[in-house]
């Protein structure tokens, strides 16, 4: 479901300067003392001081095993960890009891996929009402639907689930200009799950979830959303409302100004209560006997072992930072950067941009190919000038095959990216045709 873009202003020059000053790494130089132009935030974002300080303070003052021990440090650590969960819930417009901490977005998607695998085990769905038990059972004849634009993290787990259960994997195609084809042509009566990205990590396409949800709801399928590329740029609170029709979403900390090693799964409470756990062990149990065990209620049911407390605290600081900037301003800034990047690339006829040409349909990234030059060589030319971009298939191999390109070069943005950095990127890009002797 697409929620309208806000009529907000992008960050001004002075605001951007203040924001950039919050990110220590942006001050360094690279490649023979050249200023760093970091345009790889879609792979991982840089971290503001408040995030670095939050992690360090946790380790320096509160470090202890969360939910274990009766001493003061353990109490402080638990309070900080659960406080971080509350912050994530506010960022999502959700209830803290619906927020599960994971290692990253990939683990969150695997958690969902393995719930269906584990549901087949004897006794796994004991106590679950039959309606929900049936929704979690997969077997031959059942279908899981994804799209051709998925990151491998939202493709391979579902491939493996279908392999384990005998279900069939189907996918919604992508048009030549980077939009989803009609999902209702693929989603059918046997569909149990529809897993879709909110924003393509290659094309930047801002997927309209409304037809996806409508097709899924018509057949009673669950809808799971990969929000890893949208959470850093958009207000995604609409995804967690009852009206959205979304049953679960994931995002990752390291793309959202937060630390590596922490991600988030949000899901409807009924779904969390019905799903069998992904990992078992300490912390996620209710009662343990030698003969068997029972599980704690969600979200603890899905958080086995000592959790990533410091990273969760750092993520909370990152989300507070984004919230203070205002997600409407963050989105407006992103839109201004996308428009500028598309405009400067349009001035270079030897560049072919992949995906939508309308900046209003894009978020966070612009991928392209240069006539006659492999993307890895384009990336090397840019890196020599101090411009950091991503080259390759961006963990979206099937999408590149669909677009009939072996790989692409991607420039991706964040709150600290400036229009001047995009200009520097374009100037460095102009050297590629000269160096490789192709028409430019």
SSE map:
Elements (H helix, E strand, L loop, with lengths): L12 H9 L7 E2 L3 E2 L1 E2 L10 H14 L9 H21 L6 E4 L2 H14 L11 H7 L6 E5 L8 H10 L2 E5 L18 E7 L11 H11 L2 E5 L21 E5 L10 E5 L1 H6 L10 E5 L2 E4 L13 H17 L1 H20 L4 E4 L10 E6 L4 H10 L2 E2 L1 E3 L4 H6 L5 E5 L6 H11 L1 H6 L4
Parallel strand pairs: 3-15, 5-6, 5-7, 7-8, 8-9
Antiparallel strand pairs: 1-2, 4-10, 9-10, 11-12, 13-14, 14-17, 16-17
Helix pairs in contact: 2-9, 3-9, 4-6, 9-10, 10-13
Catalytic activity: (sulfur carrier)-H + L-cysteine = (sulfur carrier)-SH + L-alanine
Function: Catalyzes the removal of elemental sulfur and selenium atoms from L-cysteine, L-cystine, L-selenocysteine, and L-selenocystine to produce L-alanine.
Cofactor: pyridoxal 5'-phosphate
């Amino acid at each position: 479901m697409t929620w309208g873009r806000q009529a907000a202003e992008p960050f001004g020059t002075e605001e951007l300067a203040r924001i950039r000053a919050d990110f220590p790494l942006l001050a360094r130089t690279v490649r023979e003392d050249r200023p760093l132009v970091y345009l790889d935030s879609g792979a991982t974002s840089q971290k503001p001081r408040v995030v670095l300080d939050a992690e360090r303070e946790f380790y320096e003052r509160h470090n202890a095993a969360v939910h274990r021990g009766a001493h003061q440090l353990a109490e402080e650590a638990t309070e900080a960890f659960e406080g971080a969960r509350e912050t994530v819930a506010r960022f999502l417009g959700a209830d803290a009891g619906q927020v599960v901490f994971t290692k990253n977005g990939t683990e969150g998607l695997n958690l969902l996929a393995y719930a269906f695998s584990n549901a087949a085990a004897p006794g796994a769905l004991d106590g679950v009402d039959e309606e929900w038990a049936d929704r979690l059972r997969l077997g031959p004849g059942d279908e899981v639907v994804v799209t051709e634009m998925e990151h491998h993290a939202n493709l391979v787990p579902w491939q493996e689930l279908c392999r384990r259960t005998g279900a069939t994997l189907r996918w919604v195609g992508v048009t030549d200009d980077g939009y989803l084809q009609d999902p209702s042509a693929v989603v059918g009566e046997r569909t149990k799950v529809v897993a879709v990205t909110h924003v393509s990590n290659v094309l930047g396409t801002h997927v309209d979830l409304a037809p996806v949800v409508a097709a899924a709801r018509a057949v009673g399928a669950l809808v799971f959303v990969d929000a890893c590329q949208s959470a850093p740029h958009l207000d995604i609170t609409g995804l967690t409302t009852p009206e959205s029709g979304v049953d679960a979403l994931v995002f990752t900390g390291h793309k959202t100004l937060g630390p590596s090693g922490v991600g988030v799964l949000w899901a409807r409470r009924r779904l969390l209560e019905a799903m069998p756990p992904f990992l078992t062990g300490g912390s996620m149990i209710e009662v343990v006997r030698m003969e068997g065990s029972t599980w704690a209620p969600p979200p603890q049911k899905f958080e086995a072992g000592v959790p990533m407390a410091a990273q969760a605290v750092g993520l909370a600081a990152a989300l507070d930072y984004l919230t203070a900037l205002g997600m409407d301003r963050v989105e407006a800034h992103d839109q201004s950067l996308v428009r500028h990047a598309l405009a400067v690339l349009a001035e270079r006829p030897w560049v072919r941009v992949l995906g939508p040409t309308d900046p209003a349909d894009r978020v966070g990234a612009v991928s392209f190919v240069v006539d006659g030059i492999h993307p890895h060589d384009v990336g090397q030319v840019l890196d020599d000038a101090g411009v950091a971009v991503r080259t390759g298939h961006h963990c979206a191999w099937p999408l590149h095959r669909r677009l009939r390109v072996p790989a692409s070069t991607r420039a991706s943005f964040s709150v600290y990216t400036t229009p001047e950095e995009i200009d520097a990127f374009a100037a460095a890009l102009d050297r590629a045709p000269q160096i490789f002797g192709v028409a430019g």
